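Notes on consecutive records. When two proteins share a document, each keeps its own sequence and its own token line. Never mix them. Below: protein one.
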Amino acid sequence: MEYVLLIYSNEQENAAMPQAEMQQWVGAFMAYTQALRDANILRASNRLRPASAATTVRISGGKTQTLDGPFAETREQLGGYYLIDVPDLDAALSWAARCPGAQRGSIEVRPVWAM
């Protein structure tokens, strides 16, 4: 079954991270990504641009509105994702707990609804 691991963290804290610490963190993500590949469960992954680069679209009264930035004001922003294919939720949760993003933010684990 496919699950998406949504990685949330505080963009301002990440931007203020010392360069050496940032390099370690990026290295941890690279190692984690390789572990997913080695386990043959990685289907897709991407890092997202900052929330300030987002555009929100909504339709109200039949009119399309676009808003700069994210719609919700939150402490943590969606920064990336992994799409994995594992046998069950327990396996997905186990992989989420290993994600470096869980140490600086949170990982939302959500099953994919195949269409």
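Protein two starts on the next line and is unrelated to protein one.
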Amino acid sequence: MRNSILILFAFLFFFGCSRTQPPLRHVFKPSCKIYDMKQARCIDEAELVRRLGAYRVVFVGDHHDSASMHRVLAKLIGDLSRSGRHVTLANEWFTPEDDALLARYAAGAFDGNFTEAVGWKKKAGYPFASYAPIYAAVRKGGGSLYGINMSKRLQKAISDNNDTNISTAQRRFAEGLDMNLTAHKAMLSPFFAHCHAEKRGESAEACTRRMYRVQVAWDSYMGKEAAKLAKTLGTRSDMLIVFAGAMHLEYGLGINARFARLSREPFVTILPVPQGETHADVGEADYLLFYPRDAQ
């Protein structure tokens, strides 16, 4: 009897401890420039460029309000171009309807006011000067620019759950949204815990569902457009960089997850991290790209 009780206590102790195990985390030095999450070690820019040589699709997360992060990405694009890669940048701020204008801008054949023509203020809301080094690096390397986001019209139709003013293809897209990616829901649940833009007569629960539906639509649409662009890649020197807000890419659950359902093209995900950080959860990305903190 005594032995049975001891065994029971040991069993409860072991499994009780396993339930309270903290999240698995990486720990790295504050001086790290790039962190390889698969090898669990810091590397330099040259090593990252070499490792990206095996891929034609790279997802890069954006911290929208950081000009420093954008300068670091611009340097990486320049390094990739100088290594012989032809970079296509697919950007969250633009839609496929902007592609003709983007092609002229990337080729240096646009004479007017680009920001005004593309509607930058309404699309982004962040200073164009912060992003200009990225686009300049693409242009200097002879690369291309594309838009992958939904139009405001489609976004509103999905938010309102009203398909009367959209095309048949857009209606099929809205009807086919997968709202049941459990890990994605769990990741975003803290951000959708409260609805700050309830419509008249709308319950908080209905508002939360609507917000999540739009988020899934964003990720799905950008994943779909990125998959289309991946099909146009030719030689191994071609590289598609899908550039969108970091939350759209974290843990491989957003745009990259939707892309993977439509394309067999291997890819990696790079997330930005302010310098000085020393911890990251396992599985957040393939690489962490550190950037100087912006002056306050």
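For the record: Strands lie at 25-27, 34-36, 41-43, 57-62, 86-91, 144-147, 238-245, 267-274, 279-281, 287-291.
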